[in-house]
Amino acid sequence: MKSSYARNNDTQLWPEHREAYEIFGACATQWRVIAGVGNAIHQGIDYTALESVMRMRGVEDTAARFEQIRHIEAGALGVINKR
Question: Whole-prediction pTM value?
Answer without folding.
Answer: 0.81
